[in-house]
Amino acid sequence: MSSGDRGRRSPDSEPAGCEPTGADRPRPPVSRRRLFAWSASSAAGIILLTAFDPARANEESRAGQRAVDSVTRPAGSRSGGAVRGPAGEAPSATIGTAAVPAPAAPAAPAAPAYRIHEVRPDAPASAIALTIDDGPHPVWTPRILEVLRANQVAATFSVVGAQAAANPGLVRRIVAEGHTLCNHTMTHPQPFSRRTPDQIRVEMTHAQSAIVDAGVEPPRLFRAPGGDWSPAVLAAASGLGMTSLGWDVDPRDWARPGTESIRQSLGGARPGDILLCHDGGGNRAQTVAALQQVLPALRARGLSFVPL
After folding, report:
1. Residues of the domain holding 60
2. Residue 142 sits in the same domain as residue 289
3. Is residue 11 part of a domain?
4. CA neighbor of 137 nearest in space, from 113, 109, 114, 157
5. pLDDT tens digit string along 67-90?
6. Of 100, 126, 142, which residue is a domain's last?
7. Which residues are identified as catalytic?
8. Helix 168-176 to helix 140-150 angle, to the nearest 10 degrees?
9. Dihedral in degrees, nearest 10, Cα atoms 218, 224, 225, 231
């Protein structure tokens, strides 16, 4: 991605903007809508009809409505029509006088995951996660892989589909060396959230196809270019069976602020943090040098790296 870079429109162009750092980024909790369960008969779509007797039907209707009113309709509310549930819930459908809850589809997450244990509840309490975005790149990805191997660190690579198609051997190498993959769209378009729902979905599905064509399993994670999230983006990722992935610590390595700046930012990681770096989108010599210094220092603090 260039996850910290909203201004860059392709993974090989230079940045023109940046994302807020993890400390400044709000972390809204993931909300979930209440799901309404159908009764066994209504779920099957079965409505039992009795023989029609006008007088008896009118009496039973009035009695049934009084029973429904006494349970579901608050005092002072108007009679007739659908019985409405509590505020925020879907209105009930009405069959005759019996109130039947209307079905509700599961909602997409309200926000991406910003913490490790939102993605991997089984991770140790001391875990941190390193994510590498915008590759694979024929120069910088191999150098970063060597640094990870030397420090026995497993990372998660957010892969751009076009880069995967151009470097399928590197995609296979990433997985073979124990790292995991994240879908990072096909062409890394920005601003991503302003695309139509169809365009958003096509970017995701084409990237999945390119990654699978490289000879590996489809990713179960998705990261938006520039961290540019919207309800449509979150819904599309969820609909494709992918978890949306954010980050906590952004050293802004995409802007090449200097090796020491990157090292200091990453060195402040705390348990549960998701770290962001890049192997694509430009010269990543500073990133490589900073990782060589900071990875052993983080391990010396007792932090453990987990792939997501």
Report:
1. 40-100
2. yes
3. no
4. 157
5. 333 333 333 332 223 222 333 333
6. 100
7. 133, 278
8. 10
9. 140
